Amino acid sequence: AQSVTQLGSHVSVSEGALVLLRCNYSSSVPPYLFWYVQYPNQGLQLLLKYTSAATLVKGINGFEAEFKKSETSFHLTKPSAHMSDAAEYFCAVSGRTYKYIFGTGTRLKVLA
Amino acid sequence: KAGVTQTPRYLIKTRGQQVTLSCSPISGHRSVSWYQQTPGQGLQFLFEYFSETQRNKGNFPGRFSGRQFSNSRSEMNVSTLELGDSALYLCASSLQGGGTEAFFGQGTRLTVV
User: Which of A49, A70, B24, B55 would be a feasible disulfide site paired with B5, CB 3.0-4.6 Å?
Assistant: First the structure.
């Protein structure tokens, strides 16, 4: 069975500081991994995806994530936080079951 | 190209009523999946359709049903509404489902009173 764990339901960073959002996955088959962002009263927007082509994945808005099989992790980072990054972030895993399994989300707050 | 369109955006229904939500996927996408999002349970998978066939279903009661039409548009229906059905219902379309990136609509906010 596949699952995703996001550590930290709330993360606060100062504007300009490093953003690190943690995601650990469990999968019995090579996973497809995704990060999505959700702004208030909106749907989910894809930030980036891992599909085994490269372990370091670059996404939109300056975000990137590194797939570490030995640690079963897929943490999301951004070197310098911007006020507009304040949102909720979801890590998701998918495979051959035709569904996406989402983590519980991390709400990012950016302090001025 | 046009994104995923969900209608309506907001709904208020009374307990015991039924409701139908609609989702138009991105052109060329044949997979449509539905999710329920609540503060307490997060994003929960409801079901996924591909070329009019349901390929997977989540752990929801039979009151929740769906279908997909030949043009890939999808509807989900909830009968005998309960207060606990109040949620944001999100539709996602993708080329083939699991493994391919999913694009989400803005959701339908259902409030049951």
Answer: B24
Calculate how close chain B gets to A17, using CA atoms only, in Å: 28
Q: Taking chain A (112 residues) in consecutive chunks of 10 residues, what is each chunk's mean pLDDT?
A: 91 97 86 92 91 87 94 96 97 84 95 96
Q: Which residue from A18, A54, A44 is spatially nearest to A100, judged by alpha carbons?
A: A44
> What is residue B1's predicted lDDT score, i.e. its pLDDT?
63
Q: Where are the alpha helices (DSSP H) in A1-112?
A: none
Token duo for residue A65: 């994530």
For the stretch A37-67, pLDDT in tens is 999 888 999 999 998 778 899 999 999 999 9
The two tokens of residue B75 are: 């509807």
DSSP symbol at A7: E
Q: Is A81 exposed, middle or buried (0-12, 13-18, 19+ CB in 10 A)?
A: buried
Residue B40: closest C-alpha in chain A: A104
- Rounded CA gap, B80 and A41, in Å? 26
Residue numbers of chain B with a pLDDT score lower than 70: 1
Tokens of B70: 């030949």
